[in-house]
Structures are given as C-alpha cells and as structure tokens.
Amino acid sequence: MREGPDIARIASLVGDPARANMLNALMGGTALTASELALEAGVSLPTASSHLGKLMEGGLLTVASQGRHRYYGLAGPQVAGMIEAITGVAEAVGPKRVRPGPRDAAMRVARVCYDHLAGEQAVAMLDRLVAKNVLV
Predict the structure, then answer these.
(1) Which one of 29, 43, 107, 128 is least enclosed by Cβ atoms within 10 Å?
(2) Are 24 and 39 in contact (CB under 8 A)?
(3) CATH of range 7-98; options 1.10.600.10, 1.10.10.10, 3.40.140.80, 3.40.228.10
C-alpha cells in the first residue's frame, strides 16, 4: 500500500447512499439534527445515528449541542468543496439518481420549499404562465 492520504477511507464514507444524502442535506450551510438527517437519508433514527458516528469519526462533520438537541454540520469548506467536486464528476459521468419526491401525497401536489413553490400544482402554474407568455 502506498503512503499518503487515505482517500479510499473518505470515499467509502461518502460513497454510502444514506451518508451521501446526509452530506448533501448539509450543503445548504444549516446544521441539522439527527432526526432531520434521518428523514433526508430515508433511514431510521438509529441507522442515521450510526452513519453520523462514522462521518464524525472520519472528520467530515462537526456537532454542536443546544439544549437537548445536537446539530450536525459539515466540518469545513474543504468538506463542502469535496462534495461539490464529487457532485460535478457524478453529473458529468453518470446517470442521475431518481428521487421520487415526498412520501406524503399532499406534499407532492403542492408545497413551499424555502423561497419558492414546488409540487405538481407549482409545475402546472408555471406551464400555464409560459403558455400565456407571462413568463418566457
């Protein structure tokens, strides 16, 4: 084995789909709880806790306690840069993952995502505005 940084260890941490989803969820810059990250990853809370432990041990996450909650965030700009770089490579060379959207049927129909509308109703509204040349 060659000497130097162990990129295989880091790649194995990032390569797990649940952990990759957790890391992507943290790219917005907001620290999240284990429960929130479990939802993002589509795993149970105990499974999420195990994954978070591995990411912490690997130096990819930090944690801050506030009251009874623990908030996880990326360990720094190098980690964010690595995720951006991997995302760029994945977009360039591979097929995209298909995420079916929210499990809740009502959330698939209409919802607000941060600063915009989303869901089937939002898509239909956009299509109508484009058809009427309100938006181009």
Answers:
(1) 29
(2) no
(3) 1.10.10.10
